[in-house]
Amino acid sequence: MNHSALIRASISNVPPLNPTHLTSFDTQKFAIEGRNVNYSVRTKHGKWVPILKDCSLRIPAGQLWMLLGPNGCGKSTLLKVLAGLLNPTHGTIYVERPKSYVFQNPDHQVVMPTVEADVAFGLGKFNLTKEEVRSRVAKALDSVGMSDYLRRPVQTLSGGQKQRVAIAGALAEACKVLLLDELTTFLDENDQVGVIKAVKSSLGVSGDVTALWVTHRLEELEYADGAVYMEDGRVIMHSDASTIMGFIKERQASYVDWINSS
Ligand SMILES: Nc1ncnc2c1ncn2[C@@H]1O[C@H](COP(=O)(O)OP(=O)(O)OP(=O)(O)O)[C@@H](O)[C@H]1O
Fold first, then answer.
1. Does residue 233 lie in a domain region?
2. Among protein residues, the one whose CA lies closest to atom 13 of ligand 1
3. Which residue would you say has higher pLDDT here, 186 or 213?
4. Backbone phi, then psi, for 8, in 5-degree steps?
5. 37 touches 54 (CB < 8 A)
6. What region holds the ABC transporter domain (predicted)?
7. What does pLDDT average to over the chain?
8. What is the pLDDT of residues 60-70, one digit of tens each?
9. Of the residues 4, 104, 214, 245, which has the maximum number of CB atoms within 10 A of its CB?
10. ipTM greater than 0.90
11. Does residue 64 form part of some domain?
């Protein structure tokens, strides 16, 4: 792991991740890693309330992983900590750079009048020639299946198309990690599948982009290489997608049994 490319939060005496969760990943390179991440907020009465409790996770480079769990379990907070938008109270994080955080609401993503201008928006800081900008924009739009929309005014796009343009903007900046916060919440079923497929195929094109996708939709797991399942501020499980799917279904079934028996 290239430590110069890592974001380092408060460093403490961090024990290794639970090896039983990680045996099949041991030889892989990780693009995202969190160890014993805690995040607490202070109430107006001065009391600290824990939101994230000792969360540890590792996401292999080049893969699409999902972060799942019931409402309010801390998924978005963990993603924001990994994005650097919130500082952990305790623990260590690494996220390969450049990284990009994409918001839930598609209307908060796109800022320029046309698709082309929007995808090019973040490239101003790189001192590129016009030709280089055009080429990066074209490649990024191609990888999310939006090449035909280059000159389209953004206000004529659907929610899912706006999300794909936002992802193209991140890819154009050669970002290595995409942190995606419930992108499909406001989308219809077609757009929902379109955005997941676009993310999946963009990872395939570059080979070295990693995505962590927060969702509460179990059906989206079929597109994932792996997943992290949270409950009540804790990472409960960290595994391949089908193991997580089985675990959540079992959990749901025992909850239904419990409801029926009480
Ligand atoms: N600044 C804050 N002050 C107080 N409580 C907070 C704050 N930020 C988050 N929380 C609480 O922390 C918990 C986790 O919130 P978070 O948004 O991370 O959950 P989530 O799993 O993403 O939920 P959802 O699936 O509903 O979007 C919630 O109970 C939330 O109310």
1. yes
2. 72
3. 213
4. -115, 125
5. yes
6. 32-257
7. 85
8. 999 999 999 99
9. 214
10. yes
11. yes
